[in-house]
Design goal:
The structure is a homodimer. Chain A is of the alpha+beta class and about 240 residues long. Chain A has 2 domains: about 150 residues, Nucleoside Triphosphate Pyrophosphohydrolase, CATH 3.90.79.10; about 80 residues, Orthogonal Bundle (Arc Repressor Mutant, subunit A). Helix content of chain A is about 35%, strand content about 25%. Chain A has 7 helices and 9 strands, in the order ββββαββαβααααββα. In chain A, the strands form 2 sheets. In chain A, strands 1, 2, 3, 4, 5, 6 and 7 form a 7-stranded mixed sheet that branches. A two-stranded antiparallel ribbon of chain A has the order 8-9. In chain A, a hairpin with a 6-residue loop joins β8 and β9. The N and C termini of chain A lie far apart (about 45 Å). Chains A and B meet through β5 and α3 of A and β5 and α3 of B. Chains A, B: InterPro entries: NUDIX_hydrolase-like_dom_sf, NUDIX_hydrolase_dom, WH-like_DNA-bd_sf, WH_DNA-bd_sf, WHD_NrtR.
Chain lengths: ~240, ~240
């Protein structure tokens, strides 16, 4: 394979899709769960051998959302229930050829990831060249993918409310301590439990249930996320067509 | 000109940019100011004669942001200080040929619009086929542009805080009554002045100045927007490079 990068015709612009999939995972047996994302090792130029976001080319007969789901599934075997468009990256110099990448993102519960990985391992079609990386300790990625992950992290840390974190990363019912621990993994720092409880309760985005988790500690109330808030956040583009 | 639409090669996907520019304008001498946007009448197929969002094709040597500014300027002679990416629209059936449109949006003060329009009129290079329309009374637009405007309106009404409305649509200093009237034009309904004041004051996104506007009414304090909030909202993609 030649190492020279072919120069594209000046009028050629291609459209790709990529996905940033966040989950909170224990990446080794000893370590605490951290915010993590799956990357795919490139097997061809450009950037052969480097890690990159899962993705691929948009087909002419395929909607953007469908392309994002298809390429994510083909490269990682992951199938989130919902991918949201994050941003279109189109700097002229982001790739040796001219590529506009429409990037999607999703939050995925760790048990969903485990179940999907286990199903593919059992079927003998586990994807190759895929690994989960801690979001805070990424290597130098292909293209502008470090910049894309930085932007996704910024959106997650600044613009995603507790309701969506609860919906995306926690089971159907959860305690405020569960939510705080996941939020701490996202922010990469400890939060004061009393302040956190007050903020969540003031946000009106979670609904207390009548159930409690019991165990070694004193009983902790279980909450669920407020589906009305989440649907409103998604906006009119998500309406069924 | 033939009425048949040529079928593109199946692998051809083209990238366009469009812009939704919101301002609050009096569209006739008698009427109250309303939320409005400029549209361009199409002079060729497809959708010849219909109104469409300003925009055009992305050039291979041009970044997305630059293309959005250039095509907006070419079609409407408007030059907002800041265009923000809104969403990439890429449904297969949104155009007779396959086009992915990266849509930008901006808020523009009415006096800025007037000054830019007047400058071009004086220079004799005023754009043709451009008109401002009330956002609530749009005709059937070309392509999926009604859907795009609906999405932009949803974002404006649901996700844009008082700070950005103040920065985008009002002069440097303004009263809470000014801000309420612009917000009422955006929402298309009246707001309770006392509730509105309380919400704005609780949001901490505006800074009271020591100055007051005097006149027929009792003196009204002037506010300015909090630039720190606004820069934080824009996120890491806006960092100087």
């Amino acid at each position: 394979m030649t190492q020279t990068t072919p120069t594209p015709p000046t009028d050629e612009i291609r459209v790709a899709v990529s996905a940033v999939i966040f989950s909170v995972r224990g990446l080794s047996e000893s370590a605490c769960p951290v915010l993590a994302l799956p990357l795919v090792r490139r097997t061809r130029d450009p950037f052969e051998g480097r890690w990159a976001l899962p993705g691929g080319w948009l087909n002419a007969a395929e909607n953007l959302d469908a392309a994002a789901s298809r390429t994510l599934e083909e490269t990682t075997a992951l199938a989130p229930t919902y991918l949201e468009q994050l941003y279109a990256f189109g700097a002229v110099d982001r790739s040796p050829t001219r590529v506009v990448s429409v990037v999607y993102w999703a939050l995925l519960r760790s048990d969903e990831v485990d179940a999907q990985v286990a199903a593919h391992a059992a079927a003998g079609d586990a994807p190759e060249n895929v690994e989960w990386f801690a979001a805070s300790e990424l290597p130098a990625l292909a293209f502008d993918h470090n910049e894309i992950v930085d932007y996704a992290l910024w959106r997650l840390r600044n613009k995603v409310g507790y309701s969506r974190i609860a919906n995306g990363l926690l089971p159907e019912q959860f305690t405020l301590a569960d939510l705080r621990e996941v939020t701490e993994a996202i922010l990469g720092r400890r939060l004061d439990p009393a302040n956190f409880r007050r903020q969540v309760e003031n946000s009106n985005t979670l609904i207390p249930t009548d159930r409690f988790r019991t165990g070694n500690h004193r009983p902790a109330r279980l909450y669920r996320y407020n589906r009305d808030v989440e649907l409103a956040e998604r906006g009119p583009l998500i309406a069924p067509r």
